[in-house]
Specification:
With about 150 residues, the chain is of the alpha+beta class. The protein has a single domain, classed as Small Protein B, Chain: A (Beta Barrel), CATH 2.40.280. Helices cover about 30% and strands about 35% of the residues. It has 4 helices and 9 strands; from the N terminus they run E-H-E-H-E-E-E-E-E-H-E-E-H. The strands form 2 sheets. Strands 1-8-9-2-7-5-4 form a 7-stranded antiparallel β-sheet. Strand 8 and strand 9 form a beta hairpin. The longest helix has 24 residues. The protein is globular, with a radius of gyration of 18 Å. About 25% of the residues are buried.
Length: about 150
């Protein structure tokens, strides 16, 4: 059974250098799982943080499930990420370095369980972003020319 991707944070790879990534489960309430299965999630502007030794994700939007009625939880609530304590300590050690942050890259299902891929990342400077765009454009031109010569 392959992983089913629910949402990706496409801006993350544009705005950050990804240094290391981790897989974590999400503690969800009620019909949030059904909303995720309907791909009603958004990771834009979301981030993760360690509070009192536990990992949480903030600003991750999960749309309320229509049939949940009045019991639907708040869409942008703080959600606990389920990860081993050793990994939490490792992440905490990395985040003590200046300029590093923890961002979610994607939400997906593995064997019926909702998972989040979070990454320790460092913000890119404007010139890094321009360099990436130039490299991507030149690669595209090269592929286009190679395709024309066949």
């Amino acid at each position: 059974m392959a992983d089913e991707t629910v949402a990706t944070n496409r801006e993350a790879r544009h705005n950050y250098h990804i240094l290391e990534s981790f897989e974590a489960g999400i503690a969800l309430q009620g019909a949030e799982v059904k909303s995720l299965r309907d791909k009603k999630a958004n990771l834009n502007d979301s981030f993760a943080r360690i509070d009192e030794g536990e990992l949480f994700i903030f600003n991750m939007h999960i749309s309320p499930y229509p049939q949940a009625g009045r019991f639907a939880p708040e869409p942008k609530r703080k959600r606990k990420l389920l990860i081993h304590k050793a990994e939490t300590r490792k992440i905490e050690g990395r985040l003590t370095q200046k300029g590093l942050t923890l961002i979610p890259l994607k939400v997906y299902f593995t064997r019926g369980r909702a998972k989040v891929e979070v990454a320790v990342a460092q913000g890119k400077k404007l010139y890094d972003k321009r360099e990436d765009i130039k490299r991507r454009d030149s690669d595209r031109e090269l592929r286009r020319e190679m395709r024309g010569k066949e």
